[in-house]
Amino acid sequence: MDERFDNRSESDGGPTTPHLTPEQITAYLDGDLTPAERAGLDAHLRTCPACRREMSDVRSTVLLLRGLPDYRPRRSFQLIPGRAAIRRPWWERVGLKILPALPALRAATVAVAILLAVVSAGQVIRDRNGNESPNEQPAMLSATTVAPTSQPVGAAASTATTGTAPTRTSGPVQQAKATQEPTESLQANAAPREEQEPTEAPAAAGGGIGGGAESAPPEPTSDTSSADESTGGDGAAESAPADDAEAASQGAAASAAEATESDTDEGDTDSVGNGEDTQSIDGRGGGRNDDRRGNNHRRGWPERLKQRRDRRHACRAGGDATAANPDNDTDRDPGNADSATCNSFSGCHCRDASGESGAGRARPETAGERRRQRRFRVADRADRAARVAPLARRHRGRTATDTRSPVVVRGAGNSFRQCNVCSSRNARDRTRSVRGAG
Amino acid sequence: MFRPRRGADPQTADGPSVESAPELDPEARHDERLILAAQGGDLPSFNALVVRHERAVYNLCLRMLRDVSAAEDATQETFLKAWTAIATFRGGLVRPWLLRIATNRCYDVLRARGRRPADSLDAEAFESEPAWTSQTGGEHPEVYAARAELSVHLERALAALPEDQRLVVILSDVHGQPYEEIAEITGVAVGTVKSRLSRARARLREVLRDDPATREHFARFARFSED
User: Fold this and answer.
1) Which of A28, A232, A431, B116 is the most buried (most CB within 10 A)?
2) CA atoms within 13 A on the CB side of B179
């Protein structure tokens, strides 16, 4: 191991006994020797400088080890009376009963069990619905898209969506869904046709079009591509399986960061529309299910609106900040008496009517806005993605990582709620009732 | 300066954590009282035991796992396990019993990590606030400086040791446990403990003496410790 054992020749007047082994050194240092053994080692050490050095080095090492610092724990490990038992997450507790031996498989077991339950429940529902109404599309066999059984045929589409209120779903499916997305369900509405209205509670974010009331909702101009029309379904029962399955498979994890104003038309190939409602692309029909269908979204932004939006959110678009001119806005939007605050998450928070175009974050005026912004500020990315996952699913073809939520745009006497992603303006009556705006 | 720890005289044991004579040690007697009360279901008594031993358990876990949060988890699980299995405590010293539970827990974690030695080799000095033990007080400033410098390298060399050797050398030289307790904690024979300890010390000595970064400090420290 070192020179002591390499030159064991004892002809050069060196030690007459073998060099010390590491075990002997350890025993010597630890006092684990009989007096006779110790005397023998001492005799060797007197004549062998190499072993003396070795002994000295190991002794120093042990001294250093003994003097190593204690690390102070950051917290105490005392047990708390009520919580002396480990509280495991529910899937582990369930899995523990099913599969006590393999901890790694517990969560997977529970997940598979839930999936099986949902699939079989969906199968049952589909069979039953198929008997009742042959025209109706089958329910989705995914955990997030479940068709209810209590809806009339005509309204089935509005419930067979991701945002369906859990109260409308049936027994085991409802439970499985409730455990997975307890907070993301839309409110159940009296009018089934309005259910597509996005009502995410933490709608803290406004998109690039959350400006004045009249200006933001784009009219169905000729720019709206014919693809929209051709793919625009009747918005009813054809919440098509392919649509939703695809949307669900995209999920929150899909990372195709697609710009909101991108003109891409992909995803519209699965057109199932019969064209009876295709004129009201923007939802002017008063509550079509555009959002869910994903086919009716405006794929192309009219150049005029793009310019207007960029001007409005100059800071966000990196454009000319001075262009956010109140005069321009009021000229274009004479009815915009209320100063609709731009609450785009990464945006400018400028107040359009007053012409304030803050490049940074302006302090929101209302407590609700402040609360919402605070909530989103602390929410991490994943949290936000989970929050808007249903939204992203609804807006198939848009990016699933788009974390913007629908924004409420209020104008004088013309309240409506506009989707930030697809710019659809529907449910104009709901807004008034929900927000009390007028 | 250096005194053998395992002499015939139990008074030669140094370091505050050494419990070499359980029959005479008031600390051990106090532990015994506490654990008797804890066996009767008294959680405050058990928590008093936790306070007395948590630092040792935590430091063992930290040096074995090289990760602060993993060490915290392992420490908490150690005490939870001790609490739930307190009926199985059959007398003797409390600290080796706790260290044995902690050792098993650490081995579980290391096994779950897939035994990637690269992890420990790459491990930098963990982010934790060290508190120097009392025996370093009152020494020559130069020795103190050399010790502080060498400690970082020593921790790194410790992390590079095979787990079995690391565990034995930590239990023996850092925690001051005697051979017999180490054999019980690790579940191997005393002879195996001795040979692992010898190899571990030799390896550490080699690193400290031959590494250009530590050679000078180590020589200085050895010179001072000779006196």
Assistant:
1) A232
2) 18
**pTM exceeds 0.80:** no
Q: Of B17, B42, B173, which to mutate for an interface test with A (greatest number of A Cβ within 10 Å)? A: B173
Q: How confident is the model at residue A195 (pLDDT cuts 50, 70, 90)?
A: very low
Whether residue A66 and residue B174 make contact (CB cut-off 8 A), yes or no, is yes
pLDDT, tens digit only, all 227 positions of chain B: 455 554 434 343 343 444 444 455 888 889 989 988 988 888 889 999 999 999 999 999 999 998 888 899 999 999 999 998 888 888 888 999 999 999 999 999 988 887 555 444 444 445 555 555 445 556 777 788 888 888 888 888 898 899 999 999 999 999 999 999 999 999 999 999 999 999 999 999 988 888 888 888 888 888 887 77
Q: Which residues of A279-292 are buried (b: 16+ CB within 10 A; e: fewer)?
A: ebbbbbeebbbbbb
Beta strands in A181-340 (DSSP E): none
Structural domains of chain B, with CATH: 17-117 (1.10.1740.10), 135-227 (1.10.10.10)
Distance of CA B7 to the CA centre of its chain: 20
- Residue B105 CB partners (closer than 8 Å, separation 6+): B61, B74, B77, B78, B81
Burial class (CB in 10 A: 0-12, 13-18, 19+), A335: middle
CB A59 within 8 A of CB B4: no
Q: Is A57 on the interface with B (CB under 8 A)?
A: yes
- Rounded to the nearest 10°, the torsion over CA A420, A421, A426, A432 is -20
Taking residues A330-336, what's their average pLDDT?
Answer: 39
User: Considering only CB atoms, which chain B residues are within 8 Å of A30?
Assistant: 4-6, 179
Is residue A202 within 8 A of residue A295, CB to CB? The reply is no
pLDDT band, residue A190 (cuts 50/70/90): very low
Nearest chain A CA: its distance from B190 CA (Å)? 12
* CA distances, B119 to each of A166, A232, A330, B122 (Å): 46, 56, 63, 5
